[in-house]
Design goal:
27 strands; elongated
Length: 561
């Protein structure tokens, strides 16, 4: 097999060496094994890209396997969402969709094999007693009084566990390894427990379920996996996986651990993500503020941008934290090349061009994307009454404010030069509109014949032609760069960003956007990149989600702070 030309990393180096030595007959067979107890997040995207990407590059295979060993936390909804996310990222597992529950019968027989080899026993200790017996990092554990039961008694008890004779938590099956092992994982870990819960695939057939650590390595073996790629938190469990496979004498995949993904302003704990959903802090698993793949999809990220991010951060052996800016830049770089430019005013301030003829409407030619000449142009209606962003005008402007001020002049993008002549306010002193004059010799926003120039260019929409839409400004869900760093005893949700979502119901957009379709992406000039929400949009009334700002605003905020 020809070595792929993808950038090398320590995982690919191991695989290259295996191929060169003829190990596994030169086969490369990986798997992506999620637990269906929640939606996939951006960390899973990295794992997906690694496992499926390696299989692709080495002309190998990659399975999708659901490690569904805990019926109390697993749902068909999660299975469906995982399938959708993997396909959306651009990967396919063909006919190789498997479930750990497919192997429950084999796992049960393997457990009996361990009992017969006097390598497993039924233990009556309660969960609290087991914890007490386990010992500490500096002190060995204490053996269970049931550790030396006979093979016959253990087989009988285990079969009675399977028959439903005992209550939940009253007995477990434990591997008999070493209660003095410096690796606490090896101190007679539980490999089966009683759970009288209905399973999403097997129903009520089973009332005992294998533990993840016992199931995972055997499932890999059954499927003929050659390289079992996982994150670093499983490194400590590898000796247990090795022990199980060696005791059973079955195919032994090679486990390779890589650093999990950590990102600033983000938490990837499924427990915390579930809490956010259950407490309705977010609208659901696909809320655009969630770090789930479905959340990024609804926010407007593309599969290519996620894959580009995963390629850019690479594969490391040691944990580190990646700046969220790298992820945001991956979608900025793509949308800068592909997203049509449009005009939208989120906080409207009316201007009246007093010397522009009443009733007159002109069509101004606007470039759809300066990065893509093939994108062409469109026509924008221009009239006497317009709206600009309220932030684009200041009565008492600071230095280097190059937008509109009393007596000042700016260029209206693709329109004319306008000069502010009068500021109109209501009884409370709030500015309600500006009266301006325009220079007819600057049509299209071009410099006038006298050669004068202005430093500011602002966007606008025609009051008569704009349509009102809902625009949602999404931002980081957490305000702290390291949201998991909270004082002991304090709820981690204390770091939530109170401004993670601002909903604008009165945004005014150029008329062509009224027919925008769900899933379309645009750059609102000077404001950011936006995505037509595929769930809440209706015909003729699209809802726009902000995908990302034009540049990293949080970095500037931190520097100022």
């Amino acid at each position: 097999m020809e070595t792929p030309k993808a950038p090398s990393n320590f995982i690919r180096d191991i695989i290259n060496a295996d191929i060169a030595s003829g190990k596994n007959g030169g086969r490369v067979h990986t798997r992506f094994p999620p637990e269906p107890n929640g939606y996939l997040h951006i960390g899973h995207a990295k794992a997906i890209c690694i496992s499926f990407g390696i299989a692709r590059d080495y002309q190998g295979l990659c399975n999708l396997r659901f490690d569904d060993t805990n019926p109390e936390k697993e749902e068909v909804e999660y299975v469906d969402s995982i399938r959708e996310d993997v396909r959306w990222l651009g990967f396919d597992w063909g006919e190789r969709e498997y479930y750990a529950s497919d192997y429950f019968g084999q796992l049960y027989e393997h457990a009996k094999t361990l009992i017969k080899k006097e390598k497993a026993y039924v233990c009556d200790l309660s969960p609290d007693e087991q914890r007490e017996h386990r010992g500490t990092f500096t002190a060995p554990g204490k053996e269970s009084p049931n550790r030396n039961r006979s093979v016959e008694e253990n087989l009988d008890l285990f079969e009675r566990m399977k028959a439903g004779e005992f209550a939940d938590g009253s007995r477990v099956l434990r591997a008999k390894i070493d209660m003095a092992s410096p690796n606490i994982t090896m101190r007679d870990p539980t490999i089966y427990r009683i759970k009288k819960a209905s399973h999403h695939r097997t129903g009520d057939k089973w009332c005992i379920y294998p533990m993840y650590d016992f199931t995972h390595c055997i499932s890999d073996s059954i499927e003929g996996i050659t390289h079992s790629i996982c994150t670093l938190e499983f490194e400590n469990n590898r000796p247990l996986y090795d022990w199980v496979l060696d005791q059973l004498g079955i195919h032994h995949p090679q486990q390779i651990e890589f650093a999990r993904l950590n990102i600033t302003y983000t938490l990837l704990s499924k427990r915390i993500l579930l809490k956010l959903v259950q407490q309705k802090i977010v609208s659901g698993w696909n809320d655009p503020r969630m770090p789930t793949i479905s959340g990024f999809r609804r926010c407007g990220y593309t599969p290519a941008s996620i894959r580009a991010f995963c390629d850019k951060i690479g594969v490391a052996k040691f944990n580190s934290t990646i700046d969220m800016v790298l992820l945001e830049n991956s979608i900025r770089e793509e949308l800068n090349k592909t997203a049509p430019r449009v005009m939208a005013v989120l906080d409207p301030l009316k201007i009246v061009i007093t010397n522009y003829p009443e009733g007159k409407v002109e069509e101004m030619e606007a470039v759809n994307n300066p990065e893509d000449p093939a994108a062409g142009t469109r026509r924008l209606p221009f009239s006497r009454e317009l709206y600009i962003e309220r932030d684009d005008f200041r009565e008492d402007a600071p230095k280097k404010f190059f937008r509109l001020v009393p007596g000042g002049e700016v260029r209206l993008r693709y329109g004319y030069f306008v000069k502010c002549e009068k500021v109109v306010k209501d009884a409370s002193g709030k500015i309600t509109e500006l009266h301006c004059t325009y220079d007819p010799g600057t049509r299209g926003g071009n410099n006038p014949p006298d050669g004068r120039k202005v430093k500011g260019t602002i966007h606008w929409v025609s009051a008569k032609h704009a349509f009102k839409a809902e625009v949602r400004l999404y931002d980081h869900l957490f305000a702290a760069k390291d949201p998991g760093n909270v004082p002991e005893g304090q709820d981690i949700l204390v770091n939530l960003n109170p401004k993670s979502l601002e909903t604008i119901s009165g945004a005014l957009l150029e008329p062509g956007l009224k027919d925008a379709e769900p899933g379309e992406r645009f750059q609102f000039e000077r404001l950011g990149y936006f995505f037509v929400d595929p769930i809440d949009s209706t015909p003729g009334q699209p809802v726009f989600n902000r995908t990302v700002t034009l540049r990293d605003t949080w970095e500037k905020i931190e520097k100022k702070g």
